[in-house]
Write a structure and sequence with these properties.
It contains one helix and 29 strands. By secondary structure, the chain is mainly β. It has a five-stranded antiparallel β-sheet, with no helix packed on it. A four-stranded antiparallel β-sheet has the order 3-4-5-6, with no helix packed on it. A four-stranded antiparallel β-sheet has the order 7-8-9-10, with no helix packed on it. Strand 12 and strand 13 form a beta hairpin. Inactivates the type B streptogramin antibiotics by linearizing the lactone ring at the ester linkage, generating a free phenylglycine carboxylate and converting the threonyl moiety into 2-amino-butenoic acid.
């Protein structure tokens, strides 16, 4: 059995400037096979947790009850980036090494890949989201975004309107698709039929929009790598609002909105996961118990926020 480590990280942190009281929640850590550098993570329907072992080209499957992790090879040259749970309950992966969208069956462990069209070239695939019609949309940081219909196998890829940078992507409760551009520092809404992307410029220039997540009201929460801000865009009002996490020069990487509409981000500078309450506009901090955690993405299920510590070969969960 792999060692399970438990640390009351937030309790040890005390209070930080600009933060609420240290949270009573505990962070629990799970070690996974060394050298995989887990990048993204997703809480699976059966209670296990999936993660992308980017360095070794595998999908990891952690059983939190036992701490055991198994890994499924995705193919020669694989370098998986993102993983999400599809409407079919399977793991759907954006694989930069294979230049493909990959599906792993949770029961049989069967791997199926849909390669990008050859004339696309290397897309540096990053993240994915399903629209309201069962189609998976994805981003490629070299300047692409695309759509795959798993039922028909039809795949379309478009060049991003401002070139390099498409990174994070999300679906709203209404099934609409938005992505953000890290190099382009903007938000974009995609027309689900034509594929045309409409750029929405944030008020902060060159902010480095990295990841995006929708809350239950369809508002878009954005992590800004260059500025360090957490920003929100309300499509109905066309209005932006931003908050700066506490600490010196935050480096805000990921963003995830839980079922209570609390917002989770990761700050590389603070080596911490932060939980933001929009109602009180306060942050709670959960620092890692090891240096260089580098949590690049978060997802969860009710009562649990999961992240992958790419720098320590561990997964982390904060129960709330």
């Amino acid at each position: 059995m792999r060692k399970l480590l438990i640390a009351a990280a937030a309790l040890a942190a005390g209070m930080m400037a600009g933060c609420g009281p240290a949270a009573a929640q505990q962070a629990q850590y799970f070690e996974v096979p060394k050298g995989g550098r887990p990048h993204d993570v997703a809480a699976a329907p059966d209670g296990t947790v999936w993660y992308t072992a980017q360095r070794t080209g595998k999908l990891g499957i952690l059983d939190p009850k036992t701490g055991r992790a198994e890994e499924v090879p995705l193919g020669e040259g694989s370098a998986p980036h993102g993983v999400i749970v599809g409407p079919d309950g399977a793991a759907w992966i954006t694989d930069g090494g294979l230049n493909a969208i990959v599906r792993v069956d949770p029961k049989t462990r069967a791997v199926k890949a849909w390669k990008l069209p050859e004339d696309t070239g290397y897309a540096n695939l990053n993240t994915a989201a399903f629209d309201g019609r069962g189609r998976i949309w994805f981003t490629g940081q070299t300047g692409f975004y695309g759509r795959l219909d798993p039922a028909s196998g039809d795949m379309k890829v478009w060049k991003a309107p401002e070139g390099r940078g498409p990174y994070g992507i999300t679906a709203t409760p209404a099934g609409e698709i938005y992505y953000v551009s890290l190099a382009g520092s903007h938000l974009a809404k995609v027309d689900l039929e034509s594929g045309a992307a409409t750029v929405i410029e944030p008020p902060t220039p060159d902010q480095g929009a990295r990841r995006v997540w929708s809350d239950s009201q369809g508002r878009l929460w954005i992590s800004e790598w260059n500025s360090g801000q957490l920003s929100r865009y309300d499509p109905k009002a066309g209005a932006w609002k931003s908050w700066m996490p506490p600490g010196e020069k935050p480096r805000t990487y990921s963003v995830y909105v839980d079922e209570t509409d609390k917002v989770w981000i990761t700050d590389f500078a603070a080596n911490a996961i932060l939980r933001f309450d929009p109602a009180t506009e306060t942050f709670q901090s959960f620092p890692s118990d090891r240096p260089g955690a580098n949590v690049r993405q978060m997802l969860g299920r009710p009562g649990e926020a999961w992240g992958a510590e790419s720098g320590t070969d561990r997964l982390v969960v904060i129960r709330y």
